[in-house]
Every structure is written in structure tokens, then in C-alpha cells.
Amino acid sequence: MIDVFGDKSKINRYIVDEEAPCIVACPIRQDARDYIQLIARGRFSEAIQVVAERNALPSACGRICTHPCETECRRNVIDKPIAIAWLKRFLADGFLNDKTKGIERQAEIKYSERIAIIGAGPAGLAAAKDLALLGYQCTIFEAHSGPGGMLRMGVPTYRLPREFLDKDIGLIADLGVEIKYNMTVGEDISFDDLKNDFAITFLAVGLPITRRLPIEGTDLDGVQDAISFLKSANCHHSAKVGNSVLVIGGGAVAMDCARTALRLGPKEVNIVCLEHRNEMPTSDYEIEETLQEKAILHTSVGPKRIIGEGGKVAGLETLKVKSVFDSEGRFNPSFHQGSESIINADTIILAIGQASDLSFLEGHEEIGVTGGGTIAAEADTLSTGMPGVFAGGDVVLGRGTLTMGLGHGKKAALSIHNYLRKTSRTDHKFRDVKPIDELSKTETRVEKIKTEERDEMPVLDPNTRTGNWDEVELGFTEEIAVREAMRCMNCGNGATVSSELCIACLTCVRVCPFEIPKIKEDENFAHIGNDCQSCGMCVVECPAKAIEFKGQYEDMGKDQLNDAFKEAKTSEPLIINFYCSYNLDLALSKEELPENIRQINLLSLGKLSPGLILDAFEKGADGVLITSCDDMCHFGDSCHAWAEQRAETAMDFLVSIGIEKERIKHHALPDQDGNGFLQTANQLIDEIKHL
Fold first, then answer.
1. What is residue 208's predicted lDDT score, i.e. its pLDDT?
2. Region for residue 418 given its phi and psi (left: phi exceeds 0; alpha: psi -120 to 50; beta: otherwise)
């Protein structure tokens, strides 16, 4: 059963006041470390469970999330951030479906109170999912003919194919959430009717209106607003443009309008925005994608008037921007007078922001509305001034993101539950924590962290993709996903020392390849900081067994070893192969292995203990093959050396009890004779047959 408050059964004693910055930056507080560590181990089905516990729309989020987690990723100091969003997409595409283990089906209705949600966008869907799992019957009233809000109407299909959005929403509907379409509150049903028929109303109506420009010419034929244009393209396939298109705006919606227009066959698409390139309110990646498709960007330029001929658009007169913000940081553009110039266009699309439509709340002044046209809601509970009415998403945020909407939905669901049950339950993920300190380039331990190239997203050729509506980003393969996940430093989730067991012997200080453990002068036990890279050297070598990992998914190979012996016994000698996961060729070749070779992958052979090697023999192995990766290992040369030493320790013990030490073989790939893995494994098998 999914626990919408964070699955308390998995919370260990290492809840602290600091968290990895990727978690703190995430509006839904998704622990990216957990699912990335599972991807690195090839445990994809478990990884998508972790994602789905917090994220109501993982397929959509993996495609269009603005990923603030990556902006804050501590790997930025080393090379480039982990591709967190794209790894989420990898999981959602391949492993999220109605048969996924841990994904709830029809939810049990535990409470009599019925809940109305206005709007089937991210906030409304996230709230409905969590409330259904808590035991409430939810009905969503959606003004349009399909769910998703701006994800369906505004985001182009080449960024978010509808089958993936539908998959996400289908799993929410399967919980028992009812969605009523073509139901505009204030027209098809009144707000008072909802208040009378439902115990709670959650307002998640979004910002459905494009803001108008207060300049001359906006009423000319050929001027379109962004939302209507995108909706006609995405929902009705009826969008039309002329030969020369000009988009006014510098945000994500403006980029979507430009890229959509390019696919409709104009000769030219220009974009005009007030901001300098590095000030534009969208990601650099999205701007680059737009420019690759041959849109022309004019920065630091503002609209003065739209020029018309015979009642139709002919162009835009512009002014050069002096500044976008005033001395107090408020949006207040100023221009260089006398800097006018004209950009010709027969189609102009306004994408300068969105506004709310709260006409259905007329007469309900208890629900406060801000000067900016958003609903006033209490920050922590999202309650409004009217009892039983909550609000969230863009209609509260003003300008939010997909994940910010999802976060509001989660918070609203918990607040509604507490309101109805008169409880004060909390979601521990949303607790007030500060991010772990950034890595410093001046520290010597940072120099010891290996630089590893980030895998970028494979995409369609920019020269051909504007001729179709196919998805531009092609997704990660399994090999790319595993390799990228292995770059994660698992910040704050590494090893920790028990002060009660530690004997201050300095073993951890000596063996750590990153110089992390320290012993303070006034204390007699070691400290391992948040920069621990989880190599495992100290965990195995500590004579007092005072060190363990904080992360819940690090089993040091024990669970995998047990699973290896669940398979049927073979007539050939049974070989247990412990290998370093960073050797991808080996990690991804399981389907080519004979059934008598059972593999145990470890993220660093520093985690391989002599005891684990001997356990393999005790459980019935005929031989053990230990495979180190080459000098490209994430943890440097230390793993290879320690694995060799521990193999020798296990060999000595076998000899002491009358078992041939030749049953253990340690090698690196490729070995000194140039042999590959299977050649080496077969040599060991032949030797065992002659023992």
C-alpha cells in the first residue's frame, strides 16, 4: 500500500536537518537519490515504485519538468548535473503500467465525505490521487473535453505525446477518481451547487487566459493569443499561421508557440522578448531546442505597436530595452527612445503571460483574490477564507511549474484530510530542512572525485523534425540510463559511524580514497561527512563494525546472493560472479550468460567482504569469480586492490578448512592476457572440474 505521507515503514533513523539539495529543490520533495541508486543497480521496477509514490504524473514530469533538482545538483562542481528528469522518463516509459508492482488499483473508500475538485490539471490530479489513496471519493470537474489542463492544451505533442499523459492519468482514474468533462463551473454547474453537494471543494482552475498587450494593433486580423493557438494545434489540429510568424514573449509558452508554428510551414518564425538571453524566464535547453529548429530570437527588444494594412497584421514596431526591472527589482521595463525598428509579420502570437478567470466566485468574497488575480490561500494548508474550500496550483502560484502544481496537490490533500478528520498529520518529506553544503573546488577531496561525462538525450535531427509532430527527445536506452545513474554521488546518503561502537582506530581514515572520515580532537570517534561517495571501503574494513550505510537500498550484496540460490541447481559447476557495476559491458550482458553463472553486482567492489565470498560457498557455490572494472572505475584503483586482497583472505580461509583456493579467481577486464569475461569464467569452470 502506498503511503502518501512518505511510506513511514521505510524511514530509518537517519532523518536529519540537512538533505541533498536535489531533494530540497524539488517541489514534491522526490528523493531522486533513491530511484537513481536503484537504476544504477538495474532494479528498474523498484525504482518506478519509488517515483510513483510521490509523483502523480511521472511520464509527463520526465519530459517537461523544469528540473530545479539538476540546477542544485552538487555534481555541477565536478562536471555536469545528473540527468534526473530524463532518468525518471526512462522509468516511466518502460516500467510504469497497470501491472507495476506497488501501483494501487481501485482504492478503498474509507470515509463518507465527498470531495469536489475543479480542474484536471497537475494540482487537481495530484490532490485527487492522494485523497483517493487516503480513502475519499473524489470528483473532478473539468471544463474541457480531456484531462491534463495545460499539459494537454498547451504542451505540444512533440514534447509530450498524449499516450504518455493518458497513461499517467489513467492510473489515477483507476483508483476510482471520477472526472466529469465539459463541465465549466459557473456555466454548467454553479459553485454553490458544488458547495452544497460536496463536503470539500478544491480550486485548481489554473490560468486559462492569455494576457493582452496594452499597445496599438492587438485587434488586427492575424493576432492570436498563445493559449488559443496552442489549444487549436494540440487539441483540434486546426491551428493556422501565415508565411511570417512573430511570437512576443520569452518564456516556455513562447518557445512552444514558436516551435509549434514552425511545424505549420511558415517561411520564417521570429521571437521578440524584453529580456536578455540569460534573463529569459525559461530553461536554456528549451531556448536552444527552439533555435536549433531555426527560429530567430530577438532579445532585449520590446513591442511598441502592431502595424496593420487593410485590417490585417503587417509587422511589429519595436524599441530597444534599457532595463526590464527597476531599482527595486520589480518588473517595470524601460526603453531607449528613438530606437524604433520594424519586424515584418503576417501572424503575431502573444505569449506574455496568463491570467485567471474567477467569475464563478462572484458573490463569494470570503475567498480572497489578490491584486494579481490569484486566489489568496494559506501557504502551508492551502485553505482559503471560506471554510471547506482550498485552492492550489497556478491559480494560487501565479506562474508555476508542473512540479509546483503537483506539490500543491499533495499539500492540499493532506490539509483536506486533516481538516475533515480533525488531525494534524504531517508529510515528513515537506519538513523544514536545509540543503547539504555545496562542494568546494578548493577542497582536495573534490579533486579525487572522477570526472564523468554526462549522457545527453538522443534527439531527432533538427533539420527534419519541424516537418512532423513526432516526439523530439527519443529517451534513454537501458545502457545509457544505468551509466548516467552511476554518476550520482548519493549525497548525504553514504556511510555513517556509530559513536558508541567506534574505537577511533583510524582505519576508516586510512582506507577512504576521498579523505572523508575525520576524528575531532575533543572526541574519540570518527565522523563521516555528507561528501561520502558510498564506495564501501570503510564499512567492510572497520574492525569494530561501527560503520554502516544510511541508504535503504544498499544491501552490500547479501540479498542478491540469497536470490542467486533460489534458481534451480545446474549440472555444471555453479559459479557466483561478484562484479563491479561500473563495468557496463558486464553489467548488461546477463542474457548472454550460461545458467550456471549467477551474477551479483556491487556499486564498487569496495563493498565486497571476505565473509560474502565465503557465504557463497556455504550456500552451495562451486567457485567464485570476482570481476573488477578497469582503471575507468568511478572509485579509482582502490576497488581493484581491495577486492584482490579480500579474495586472498577468503582463499586462505578455504585452505585452512581443506578446500582448494583455486575455486576463487579474481581478475580485471580485460585480463592481462586480453581475455574477456566469459573466457575467464570458462577457464575457472574447467579448473574446478579437474579439482
1. 93
2. alpha
Which residues does residue 185 pair with via DSSP β-bridges, in sequence order? 189
What are the cell numbers at 233?
A: 494545434
Could you give the 3-state DSSP secondary structure of residue 460? coil
Mean pLDDT check: name the lowest of 333-337, 446-450, 534-538. 446-450
Is the predicted pLDDT of residue 170 greater than 80, yes or no?
Answer: yes
Other residues' Cβ atoms within 10 Å of the Cβ of residue 9? 7
186 CB contacts (<8 Å, ≥6 apart)?
A: 359, 360
> 6 φ, ψ to 5°?
115, 15
- 322 confidence band (pLDDT: 50, 70, 90): very high
pLDDT cut 90: percent of the chain above it: 77
Find out whether 550 and 12 touch, Cβ atoms under 8 Å. yes
Instruction: State how far Cα 393 lies from the chain centre.
Output: 19
Q: What pLDDT is recorded for position 72?
A: 95
CA–CA dist 22, 436 (Å, integer) = 10
Query: Cell digits for 553?
Result: 537500498
Alpha-helical regions (H) of 606-637:
610-619
Beta carbons of 37 and 50 less than 8 angstroms apart: no
What's the pLDDT tens digit per position in 419-430? 999 999 999 999
Stated pTM of the model? 0.91
Residue with cell 540546477: 71
Per-residue confidence (pLDDT) for residue 10, from 0 to 100 = 42
Cα 162 from Cα 234, distance rounded (Å): 10
- pLDDT tens digits along 67-103: 999 999 999 989 999 999 999 999 999 999 867 766 7
d(CA 167, CA 410): 20
Q: What are the tens digits of pLDDT across the range 668-683?
A: 876 555 567 888 899 9
User: What is d(CA 292, CA 460) in angstroms, rounded to the nearest whole number?
Assistant: 11
Are the beta carbons of 142 and 428 closer than 8 angstroms?
Answer: no
Angle in degrees, 0-180, between the axes of helices 32-40 and 478-485, rounded to the nearest 10: 120
For residues 255-267, one letter each, b for 16 or more C-beta atoms within 10 angstroms of the residue's C-beta and e for the rest, the string is bbbbbbbbbbebe
Which three-class secondary structure state does DSSP give residue 497? strand
Question: Is the backbone peptide bond immediately before 58 cis, with ω within 30 degrees of 0?
Answer: no
Q: Is 158 in contact with 138 (CB distance < 8 Å)?
A: no
Residue-wise pLDDT tens digits, 374-427: 999 999 999 999 999 999 999 999 989 999 999 999 999 999 999 999 999 999
Secondary structure class of 140 (helix, strand, coil): strand
Phi then psi for residue 234, to 5 deg, are: -85, -30
Domains of the chain with bracketed CATH:
8-101+432-485 (1.10.1060), 114-208+388-430 (3.50.50.60), 210-355 (3.50.50.60), 495-549 (3.30.70.20), 558-689 (3.40.50)
Interatomic CA distance for residues 691 and 686, integer angstroms: 9
Q: How many CB atoms lie within 10 A of CB 317?
A: 16
Cα–Cα distance for residue pair 537/606, rounded to 1 Å: 5
Residue with cell 575531532: 520
CA 522 to centroid of chain Cα atoms: 42
